[in-house]
Inverse folding.
C-alpha cells in the first residue's frame, strides 16, 4: 500500500505522523510506504504571525525543520507537486519525478492573494506571511496617531483573526500611550461583526467598551493607496491613515491549473473527507471546499479522522469514522485574556467570558503545537 | 432560469452561508445564477439585504423541509 501525503503543513504532518505510528509494523514489513511531498523544508506555526505583527514573537520562533517533526518511517521529499494525474493515481513533481499511490492525501493549504484587489498590496498592511507581519509591526511602531481601518477579504483563513487584531491594536496603542490619538474602525463583509453569531454577540459590547467602531456589509473592492481611500463593493468609501487587511485567500495554483476546484478549493465530502468522485483521494485543511473554517484547528481534527480511517483501511479494509465538523479556536481578547469557540456542523459555539488562564493556555499552545503536529497531542 | 451553481451551506456556523455566497460571487460571471442552500434561520433576511446593497438580484427565496433555497443572479 503506497500512501502519498501532498503538503507538509498542519494537516499533512499530523496525518503522516499519525499513520506512521499506527502502521509501524506494516511499514517495517514493507507492506506500507508513507511518502510526504512538501514545498519547503521548514514548518511554520502560522498563528504566531499575529504575535509577530505586534512585536510579541520573533519570526524565528515560528519555525522548525520539517524533517525533525516527522517519524523516521516517513519518506520525506522537498519537491512540490506540479501535476496531479488522478486517473492514473500519479503525481508529477517540480523536479520531474513521478510518484504513484494507492491512497493520496491532498493538504496543500491556501495562500493570501492581495494582488487580486487593485491597490491593496500597495496600500495595506497584512500579517499572513512572515515578511508582511514584520512590515506591519514596523508600521505600527512608527504610527503616531490617526485613523486605523481594519477590513476583511473573502474567503480568508483564521476567521477569528479580524476580531483578535482589534483587541491587539487597542492593547498595543494603549501600551504606547497613544490610544487617545488613534481611531480604530472595523469593516466586516456580512451584516454583523463576526460570521459566528455567538462571537458577534460577544464581541460587539467588547468593541463598544474599548472604543472600536464598526461598519458591516463592507466588502473590499479596491484601494486608492496614493490618497489613502478604501472602497467597498457596496459603494462606500473610507479615508484611512493606516489600513490593515485580512486578505482574500485562494488554494494553491496547481489545484486550479489541474481543474480540481474553483478558487483552488477541492470539492470534498464533508463527512468522509474524500475528494468528490475519487474515493482514494482525501482532502484536508484549507484545501477543501467545505463550509468549515480555514484554520489549523479544523485541519487538526480532520487530520485525526483521515489518519484513523486510512490506517483502518489498511488493517480491516474499511474506514471507521466520519468528520463531524469540529473546530476549536482560541480567541485572544486583549488585556492578557482569552476565550475560545468550539463548534461542529450541528452545534454552535457557546462563548465563555475571557480569562487569564485561557490566555496562558493559548501561549502554552504556541509551544505545544510542535507536539501536536508530531501527532502526539 | 437555470442555476449555474449550487452552494451547499447547510449546517455551517463558520464561515457561514453569506460568506460562502460572497466568496463564490467574486469568481462568477455576470448573469450566473447561484442557488444557496442554508439551514441558518437568518439567511432569509441577511442574504437579500446584502444582495440588494451590493447590487445583485434575488430571483428566488423558498423554504423546503427546513432548508432555505436562495437564488441570486450576479448583476455586475
Amino acid at each position: 500500500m503506497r500512501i502519498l501525503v501532498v503538503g507538509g503543513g498542519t494537516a499533512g504532518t499530523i496525518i503522516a505522523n499519525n499513520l506512521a505510528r499506527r502502521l509501524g509494523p506494516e511499514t517495517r514489513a514493507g507492506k506500507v510506504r508513507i511518502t510526504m511531498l512538501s514545498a519547503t523544508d521548514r514548518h511554520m506555526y502560522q498563528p504566531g504571525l499575529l504575535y509577530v505583527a505586534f512585536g510579541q514573537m520573533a519570526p524565528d520562533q515560528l519555525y522548525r525543520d520539517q524533517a525533525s517533526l516527522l517519524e523516521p518511517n516517513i519518506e520525506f521529499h522537498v519537491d512540490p507537486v506540479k501535476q496531479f494525474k488522478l486517473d492514473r493515481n500519479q503525481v508529477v513533481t517540480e523536479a520531474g519525478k513521478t510518484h504513484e499511490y494507492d491512497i493520496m492525501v491532498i493538504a496543500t493549504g491556501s495562500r493570501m492573494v492581495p494582488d487580486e484587489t487593485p491597490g491593496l498590496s500597495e496600500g495595506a498592511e497584512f500579517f499572513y506571511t512572515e515578511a508582511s507581519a514584520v512590515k506591519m509591526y514596523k508600521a505600527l511602531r512608527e504610527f503616531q496617531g490617526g485613523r486605523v481601518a481594519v477590513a476583511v477579504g473573502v474567503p480568508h483563513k483564521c476567521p477569528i483573526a479580524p476580531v483578535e487584531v482589534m483587541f491587539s491594536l487597542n492593547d498595543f496603542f494603549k501600551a504606547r500611550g497613544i490610544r487617545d490619538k488613534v481611531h480604530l474602525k472595523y469593516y466586516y463583509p456580512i451584516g454583523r461583526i463576526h460570521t459566528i453569531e455567538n462571537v458577534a454577540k460577544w464581541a460587539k459590547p467588547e468593541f463598544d467598551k474599548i472604543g472600536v467602531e464598526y461598519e458591516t456589509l463592507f466588502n473590499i473592492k479596491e484601494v486608492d493607496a496614493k490618497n489613502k481611500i478604501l472602497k467597498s463593493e457596496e459603494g462606500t468609501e473610507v479615508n484611512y491613515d493606516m489600513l490593515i487587511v485580512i486578505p482574500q485567500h485562494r488554494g494553491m495554483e496547481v489545484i486550479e491549473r489541474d481543474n480540481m476546484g474553483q478558487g483552488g478549493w477541492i470539492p470534498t465530502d464533508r463527512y468522509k473527507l474524500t475528494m468528490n468522485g475519487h474515493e482514494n483521494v482525501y482532502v484536508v485543511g484549507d484545501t477543501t471546499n467545505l463550509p468549515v473554517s480555514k484554520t489549523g484547528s479544523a485541519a487538526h481534527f480532520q487530520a485525526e479522522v483521515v489518519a484513523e480511517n486510512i490506517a483502518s483501511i489498511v488493517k480491516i479494509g474499511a474506514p471507521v469514522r466520519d468528520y463531524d465538523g469540529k473546530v476549536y479556536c482560541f480567541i485572544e481578547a486583549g488585556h492578557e485574556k482569552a476565550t475560545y469557540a468550539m463548534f461542529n456542523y450541528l452545534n454552535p459555539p457557546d462563548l465563555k467570558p475571557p480569562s487569564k488562564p485561557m490566555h496562558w493556555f493559548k501561549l502554552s499552545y504556541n509551544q505545544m503545537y510542535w507536539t501536536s503536529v508530531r501527532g502526539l497531542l | 432560469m437555470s442555476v449555474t451553481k449550487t452552494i451547499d451551506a447547510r449546517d455551517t456556523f463558520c464561515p457561514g452561508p453569506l460568506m460562502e455566497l460572497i466568496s463564490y460571487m467574486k469568481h462568477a460571471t455576470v448573469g450566473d445564477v447561484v442557488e444557496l442552500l442554508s439551514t441558518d434561520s437568518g439567511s432569509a433576511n441577511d442574504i437579500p439585504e446584502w444582495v440588494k446593497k451590493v447590487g445583485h438580484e434575488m430571483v428566488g427565496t423558498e423554504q423546503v423541509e427546513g432548508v432555505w433555497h436562495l437564488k441570486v443572479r450576479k448583476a455586475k
Q: What stands out?
A: Residues 296-316 of chain A form the longest helix (21 residues). Chain A touches chain B at residues 154-155, 159, 189-191, 195-197, 217, 219, 233-235, 248, 262-263, 291-294, 325, 327, 341, 343, 345-346, 348-349 (CB under 8 Å). The first strand of chain A starts at residue 2 and ends at 6. The mean pLDDT of chain A is 97.
